[in-house]
Design goal:
The complex is a heterodimer of chains A (270) and B (201). Chain A is mainly alpha-helical. Chain A is built from nine helices and two strands; from the N terminus they run ααααααααββα. In chain B, helix 1 (2-13) runs parallel beside helix 8 (135-168), helix 3 (34-64) packs antiparallel against helix 8 (135-168) and helix 7 packs antiparallel against helix 8. The chains are: A mainly alpha (270), B mainly alpha (201).
Chain lengths: 270, 201
């Protein structure tokens, strides 16, 4: 089953590469004739870079990277938002910095250089959070520092930012972190509602409770706020997501097969 | 006594994977293969013990020059370069081990267990400087953590490798849940088992 999955993924990727190669060829050809088609094509490509990170290459659900901050930061929606913003900040700036220095850095020592850049950004986030959002920092404490070893950030630096332009890398960072935040918010929502019976919002800057809505407080299952709930909820979210993508792929495959059959029949008819 | 308390609490009650949720990337990625889990755990034990001692030294040094805010940068750099050195060493002298670990050795650099251990050591050392822990107590706590973190990782990942074998060969699992999703749900069941140790220390 897993082999099948990998194969289809590979096929998709390779087809994408072929598509992009074709599109670049086309654009190269079209530039000779007119400039108009190129201008139409470019935003599409950029949009793809942005949207790929949200669903197709979702860091948590598809690549299974950066799982460590997921569980402690999804105990409440508040924490999930805090962690998402921290990851967005670090990923955005690390992608921009790394892609802008990609031609200067020798490839032998690129990983240590990336680590220094990321660690610096994480330290900035850490100090800022310690200064302005103390309650949030106390709850996430170790896991803010652990963003430095988060596979997503180093992975995007290595796989994307070191090969692409600054603008594209920034868009990729935005897409990936929106995908990350989405999963975090979904998991946090279920955990908080089941674990505490409702939703509580706290102002991260002052620590005051903004509003509480706990209609199911009597039926709360506190174990959902602990790591058990994180594993269960993420497992279920991941399973449902994988099932949906599998259905989609099946539908696409059937469509392609039908088209092929139709083509063959048409040829046979001729 | 302090050593034993820290050791048992970090090994069972606050287990690094099940309760601390660190090192999950390698946990999910490797646990299908028992041999790989053993190799990774042994590598992790070596790296954790050595890098733990190194970060203890770093904590002392950074406190001395009054620059503890640099702890994240310094510790990740030192650990990364140390793991790189270890990789070169293993490649040269233990090629068979290097073959079996393959791509997973560089992953130790970005393993949360190693970095989490370093951060815990920094915070314990800070407590010693504050005066909340005596020098002997802080030393024993740090030693207990250095041993218990990788051993806790080894314990859980090795047990889970056996569970994975049963899960992944089970045909009753829904199609979409096969692989990582059902693995996470099984991990949750292990979490419940670990909660039985709450209050032990």
């Amino acid at each position: 089953m897993s082999e099948n999955k990998i194969n289809t993924a590979d096929v998709e990727k390779s087809s994408e590469v072929v598509n992009s190669a074709e599109s670049t060829q086309k654009s190269a050809v079209s530039t000779k004739v007119t400039d108009k088609p190129k201008k139409v094509k470019k935003p599409n490509e950029l949009l793809k870079v942005f949207t790929n990170g949200i669903i197709k290459d979702n860091a948590l659900l598809v690549m299974l990277l950066g799982l460590c901050p997921l569980f402690p930061s999804t105990t409440s929606i508040n924490n999930a938002i805090g962690m998402s913003v921290a990851v967005l900040f670090v990923l955005f700036f690390s992608n921009i910095i790394i892609s802008s220095i990609r031609k200067i850095v020798p490839s032998n020592i690129r990983v240590p250089v990336y680590i220094v850049v990321i660690a610096t950004l994480v330290t900035i986030v850490e100090l800022l959070m310690k200064a302005f959002t103390e309650t949030l920092y106390e709850q996430l404490s170790v896991f803010i520092s652990l963003i430095v070893v988060n596979c997503i950030i180093l992975g995007r630096a290595e796989a994307f930012a070191s090969k692409n332009s600054v603008g594209k890398s920034a868009l990729d960072a935005l897409g990936i972190s929106i995908g990350f935040a989405m999963v975090l918010l979904i998991v946090a929502f279920f955990r908080e509602v089941i674990g505490t019976g409702g939703i509580t919002f706290v102002n991260p800057f002052t620590g005051d409770t903004l509003f509480t809505f706990l209609p199911l407080a009597d039926f709360a299952v506190p174990v959902f706020v602990q790591s058990f709930g994180g594993f269960v909820t993420f497992g279920l979210v991941l399973g449902v997501f994988t099932t949906i993508t599998m259905w989609n792929n099946d539908r696409k495959m059937k469509k392609e097969q039908k088209e092929k059959l139709a083509l063959q029949q048409a040829k046979g008819g001729k | 006594m302090v050593f034993l308390t820290t050791f048992i609490s970090s090994l069972l009650v606050n287990n690094v994977i099940l309760s601390g949720t660190k090192g999950l990337c390698s946990y999910i990625g490797l646990s299908k293969d028992k041999k790989a889990t053993l190799g990774m755990s042994i590598a992790l034990i070596v790296v954790c013990v050595l890098s733990g001692l190194i970060s203890w030294g770093l904590a002392a040094l950074l406190t001395l020059i009054n620059a503890t805010y640099l702890s994240t940068i310094v510790s990740i750099l030192v650990i990364a370069s140390f793991v790189q050195l270890l990789e070169i060493f293993i490649k040269k002298f233990l090629p068979s081990l290097y073959k079996s670990l393959g791509i997973y050795l560089p992953l130790i650099t970005t393993n949360c267990v190693v970095m989490g251990l370093a951060i815990s050591i920094f915070s314990t050392y800070a407590k010693y400087i504050d005066g909340t822990l005596s020098s002997l107590d802080s030393a024993l706590t740090i030693l207990g953590m250095i041993l218990a973190y990788p051993l806790g990782y080894f314990m859980v990942i090795y047990v889970f490798a056996f569970i994975q074998e049963r899960i992944q060969n089970n045909n009753e699992t829904p199609r979409g849940f096969k692989g990582a999703a059902i693995a996470f749900i099984a991990t949750a069941a292990m979490c419940l088992a670990i909660y039985g140790f709450t209050g032990l220390v």
